[in-house]
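Example noted here:
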Amino acid sequence: MSATEPKTEIIEADILVIGGGTGSGYATPEQYVTEITVADDGIVDQKAALACA
């Protein structure tokens, strides 16, 4: 058996995520804010997200 060099492969992709936890279902504004807060690791302006909801 001979040693082989590891193969490096570069893949470029554009990814667009629409929605999220409440994107396609019905949610209260409070549920929406909770989903956004969790998705952003707690870094979100909750008042602004609630106003948007």
User: Anything to note?
Assistant: The radius of gyration is 20 Å.
